[in-house]
Write a structure and sequence with these properties.
Elements (H helix, E strand, L loop, with lengths): L14 E12 L2 E13 L4 E5 L6 H9 L6 E6 L2 E2 L7 E4 L12 H12 L4 H14 L15 H14 L4 E5 L7 H18 L2 E5 L3 H7 L2 E5 L6 E6 L11 H15 L7
Parallel strand pairs: 3-8, 3-9, 6-7, 7-8
Antiparallel strand pairs: 1-2, 1-4, 4-5, 9-10
Keywords: ATP-binding, Nucleotide-binding, Transport
Family: Belongs to the ABC transporter superfamily.
GO molecular function, one term: ATP binding
Length: 266
């Protein structure tokens, strides 16, 4: 009987947090925001950080981006410790005013590519135009930020992030300040882009239905200080599943895990 071929090693996580603990120093002393949080994100996964207000979701995202140092524990990207910001992790924030007001949409998206100095101006603009087309803003290439709606500005911010081709896209409540219709449209657009491009995503939100919609996996956090409660797979429920018994059942389950029988936003 021929010998069996050895099993291939599983692909390492793109992003890991290992016993991540974060403290802030205030006038009253040190305040613990996050304690011993562990998770990993594989290639093409969409991990959503979800928990009560003040549980440290945004702090975790800032640590993943390298904006703040860990008090203890570590963040790894493809097995390498994170020591600061880098082009392998790009953040899209909630605020609309992430764009340079004196630059056009095209130039805003091309700007980080030009700063990196790895592409010529023509190459950077071509890549920027491709990313802008992906978010449906080709007609606004030469528009300035003051002429854009909030939703359009967020599309530009997403295009700018995608144009850099990061290992991980980090999104901190990017749709929270938008009206309901624009928010739903951008949720749909993000899911279509994720299916098309297969990028790895870590997404912070206050809304449990949005978490279930966006995520392939949910990482649930306890009240302050944030600790890992559990990680829940979403079974890839998506837009077509909204309103179905499976979607509603998972939403109720997540509510129960976080709050018991309480319903509403996180």
């Amino acid at each position: 009987m021929p010998a069996l071929a050895p099993l291939a090693d599983a692909a390492p996580p793109v992003l890991e947090a290992r016993r991540l603990t974060l403290d802030y120093v205030t006038e009253a002393g040190s305040v613990r925001a996050v304690e011993n949080v562990d998770f990993s994100v594989g290639a093409g996964e969409r991990l959503v950080l979800l928990g009560p207000s003040g549980c440290g979701k945004s702090s975790i995202l800032k640590a993943l981006a390298g904006f703040i140092p860990a008090t203890s524990g570590t963040v790894l990207v493809r097995g390498h410790p994170v020591s600061g910001p880098g082009p392998d992790r790009i953040v899209v924030f909630q605020e609309f005013d992430q764009l340079l007001p004196w630059k056009t949409v095209r130039d805003n998206v091309a700007f980080p590519l030009r700063i990196a100095r790895k592409l010529s101006r023509r190459e950077a603009e071509a890549r920027a135009e491709g990313a802008i087309a992906r978010v449906g803003l080709t007609r606004a290439l030469d528009a300035f930020p003051h002429a854009l709606s909030g939703g359009m500005k967020q599309r530009v911010a997403i295009a700018r992030a995608l144009a850099t081709d990061p290992d991980v896209l980090l999104m901190d409540e990017p749709f929270a300040a938008l009206d309901a219709l624009t928010r739903r449209q951008l949720q749909e657009d993000l899911l279509k882009l994720a299916d098309e491009l297969g990028f790895t995503l870590v997404f912070v939100t206050h809304a449990i239905d949005e978490a279930v919609l966006i995520g392939t996996r949910l990482h649930l956090l306890s009240p302050h200080p944030g600790r890992t409660l559990t990680t829940r797979d979403t079974a890839h429920l998506g837009l077509a599943d909204m309103g179905t018994p499976a979607f509603e059942s998972l939403t109720r389950e997540v509510h129960t895990l976080l709050f018991g029988s309480e319903r509403g936003h996180v």
